[in-house]
Amino acid sequence: xxxxxxxxxxxxxxxxPRSFCDxxxxxxxxxxxxxxxxxxxxxxxxxxxxxxxxFDSPNADNGYDIxxxxxxxxxxxxxxxxxxxxxxxxxxxxxLILDLVVNHTSDEHAWFVESRKSSDNPYRDYYIWQKTPPxxxxxxxxxxxxxxxxxxxxxxxxxxxxxxxxxxxxxPKVRHEVYDVMRFWLDKGVDGFRMDVxxxxxxxxxxxxxxxxxxxxxxxxxxxDAYLQEMRREVLEPYQAVxxxxxxxxxxxxxxxxxxxxxxxxxxxFQFDTVDIDRGPDGWRPWTLPELKAIFTRHDAAxxxxxxxxxxxxxxxxxxxxxxxxxxxxxxxxxxxxxxxxLLLTLRGTPFIYQxxxxxxxxVTFRDIAQFDDxxxxxAWREEVEGGRTTPEAFIANQNxxxxxxxxxxxxxxxxxxxxxxxPWFALNPNYTDINAExxxxxxxxxxxxxxxxxxxxxxxxxxxxxxxxxxxxxxxxLFVYERSLxxxxxxxxxxxxxxxxxxxxxxxxxxxxxxxGTADRHLRGWEARIYRKL
Length: 535
Ligand code: TEU
Ligand code: CA
What we know:
The protein is α/β, with parallel strands linked by helices. Helix content is 30%, strand content 16%. An eight-stranded parallel β-sheet has the order 11-10-9-5-2-1-15-14. A five-stranded antiparallel β-sheet has the order 16-17-18-22-20. Strands 6-8-7 form a three-stranded antiparallel β-sheet, with no helix packed on it. Helix 6 (172-188) runs parallel beside helix 8. The longest helix is centred in the middle third of the chain and has 17 residues, at 172-188. It is globular and about 75 Å long.
């Protein structure tokens, strides 16, 4: 069996602070807003909060460009308010992890301000400078990854936005600065880190040209594993801190390198297979249920007893779960969001919930480029539409499927919005009048209460956490039926991924424990989710 650990049994909840709750009417979510909503989060039964970047930042990429790692973003509040939040999270019996963004900093970080001044500046080697670009690497956010800088005429590397220069991890001083930042927050009592694009930290000194997707090259530098091992020895291990790294660009077969417990790197990784399922070379592509199911069978085979998976279907970089994997038509929105909740919370691996998915929040229908906030979308528009490669209509249609902004609309707290008393920094999804926390809390059949019931069930039964996984119907294109079993405790989960009723033979010798329809029926109804347990 597995070695037990709190983070294997935990359910995580991700907060995107800018869009969570605004306490002072300036239109921007903040720390005091989160403090006001802790009982809402606790009410779900989650164990640990992942707080998106809350550090001082000029917000070129909404906080993923950090100017000062030891300061709280002024718009979000003060260090005293952060300390109070942490204390209140703990008092509520939960834990808190922070977003560690250390592949790059903001170009306004003091290290980079120094670094760019001259080629003999003591901070020059904190970043990656070349006399001329050694290759034609491109930024994940479009355009060249090498940027000429006026002061010296040299080029610096930025794998993301031009305002996000990559740190030089080959310089041991940089690594120790990062470890000091980690200790600063761990000393306050945080429980660990989600690590942003952590596999990108090691750069290949041969500067190979790209072949395939850029991330496949960027994530696989020669010192990646040595640096993660050092980080674990230096910081994570002594503090017993949990770590979950974004495995962006790391193939499934390579992922055990990051998380096999015998290697001493990370505890968990976000593998991108599920969220890449609808991504093709030219944007959105359709997908099928057997493809989705095959991912979990593949993961099950790739991760042995020494690796522990994560399960997530969304985050601040992805569209809304119900629009993407379910059916956001009003007739099916609640049921299909409950099907996805059941999947998320009964697969093998630690589940991560993204704020608002517990309300069944949907994608937005964007009509105009002016409605978007994301720097990535804006860069892509410049390249594709202004560059004459596609039409505005085709571009917007694709963004309506893939945009990161779907996830970034503010939380709808009440039928009046309730996110802010002022003007929100980003428009709420106009359906907040129907889809909001107040309505969900009042309705026992809401998506929110389904999440709460599923989390309680998971917490009560080790088989749902540590049990083996077996897909019982891999080829069916509407039904997803699988087993979880541990020491003779056998569970069967039957999910209908369609609005058609389907004949389904209830397994003999099993009890129905939960259905999102409440009552039993001979048929598996449209978007029904059932959980059975062997007698
Ligand atoms: O994301 C890595 C990243 O590039 C993702 O945006 C990825 O491309 C996307 O999920 C594919 O669907 C991290 C952060 O999560 C993201 O918000 C930041 O913009 C990025 O790093 C840079 O820090
Ligand atoms: Ca505010």
